[in-house]
Amino acid sequence: VRTMPIKELLVIADNDASCRSRLDITFGLAAEHGARVVGLHVMPPPIMPLYADVPIPESVEKLQRLELEDSARRAATVFAAAAAHTGVPTEWRVVEGDVLRQAALHARYADLTLVPQGVDLGSPSANLAPLPEQLVLTVGRPVLVIPRYGSFPKVGRRVLVAWNGSREATRAVHDALPLLERAEQVTVLSIDPTVEPENRLPGADIALYLARHGATVQAASMAGLDMMVGELVLSYAADHDIDLLVMGAYGHARLREMVLGGATRSLLQHMTTPVLLSH
Q1: How far is CA 104 from CA 99, 123, 131, 136, in A?
Q2: Can you list the pairs that 66-70 forms with residues at least 24 positions away whose Cβ atoms lie under 8 Å?
Q3: CA gap 193, 264 in Å, rounded
Q4: Radius of gyration of the chain measured on its C-alpha atoms
Q5: Which of 51-60, 108-117, 210-219 is least confident?
Q6: Are 181 and 187 in contact (CB under 8 A)?
Q7: pLDDT, tens digit, for every residue of 77-106?
Q8: Angle formed by the axes of helices 131-138 and 260-270, nearest 10°
Q9: Which helix (H) or strand (E) holds 30?
Q10: What is the arrangement of strands in the sheet containing 36-43, beginning at the earlier edge strand?
Q11: Cβ(168)–Cβ(197) under 8 Å?
Q12: CB contact set of 155 (below 8 Å; sequence gap of 6+)
């Protein structure tokens, strides 16, 4: 089976201090894969109170709009600075509306979307905290979440795959294949694995699958010892110099918040390395 290449990257561009790091990662991946980068800046509509004792002057809405347009221009400047001298083809888009809805709409036409861990950009209607999980559950494409803090000069050199044999984990491995094939080392990590037929090593079959695709891969397993799965994955990643984590999101019914469901939420809150999520 021929791996679908990464040819279109979408990155959420804003004025948060972490945006430049996100852009640098995006352009690094684009240069490596020969991809185009689309920068998306979403302007929330001006905030107008539903009820007021006195009429709201038009100047208030106009002033808000001017501030939003200025934010868009500043974001465009940062995007252009990150793109300079990379040789990567780009497109800059500014749209108005709900951040989650607009991001999902544009992400459906990208091979991979890069988003922030989730930060409040100063406006109640621009709160991006739920963006990663909302996108991965609705868009049908992989989402690469970049931590709020930290420096990530190279992403995808040493990759950790959180593996539990679920449909979501399988989807994530397939979506990440273009990255896994280029990695220096891929580790498939199983936590509290069930006993497989013929005493096979947990993760051995998916590791063999990846090896057939040209990945340099090894399988590993850990006992949970009553710890949260998300905490164990982050601990392993820190101990082994991992620069990209690949995992399926919400492997169980979200209301049950079991195993990988809880792990997804824990990782999104405490992540210390970029995480590629698929559902």
Answers
A1: 8, 20, 9, 9
A2: 68/43, 68/44, 69/43
A3: 18
A4: 20
A5: 51-60
A6: no
A7: 999 999 999 999 999 999 999 888 999 999
A8: 140
A9: helix 19-33
A10: 90-96, 36-43, 8-12, 112-116, 143-146, 275-278, 244-248, 158-162, 185-191, 217-222
A11: no
A12: 25, 28, 29, 144, 243, 244, 274
Contact 74, 41 (CB under 8 A): no
Angle, helices 260-270 vs 229-239, to 10°: value is 50
CA distance 260 to 230: 8
Q: Amino acid identity of 58?
A: E
Q: In this predicted structure, what is the pLDDT of residue 265?
A: 75
Structure-token match 């998916």, residue found = 206
Q: Which two tokens stand for residue 60?
A: 């208030």
Contacts of 228 (CB under 8 A, 6+ apart): 262, 263, 266
- Check: CB of residue 89 under 8 Å from CB of residue 26: no
- In one-letter notation, the amino acid at residue 165 is G
| Residue 113 · residue 103 · CB < 8 Å | yes
DSSP states along 52-100 = -SSPPPHHHHHHHHHHHHHHHHHHHHHHHHHHTTS---EEEEEEES-HH
Closest CA to 195 of 182, 204, 186, 183: 204
User: Does 53 score more than 80 pLDDT?
Assistant: no
Residues 100-109 have pLDDT tens digits of 899 999 999 9
Q: Model pTM?
A: 0.89
Give the separation between CA 158 and CA 122, rounded to whole angstroms. Answer: 35
3-class state of residue 208 by DSSP:
helix
What distance separates the 2 farthest-apart alpha carbons in the chain?
77
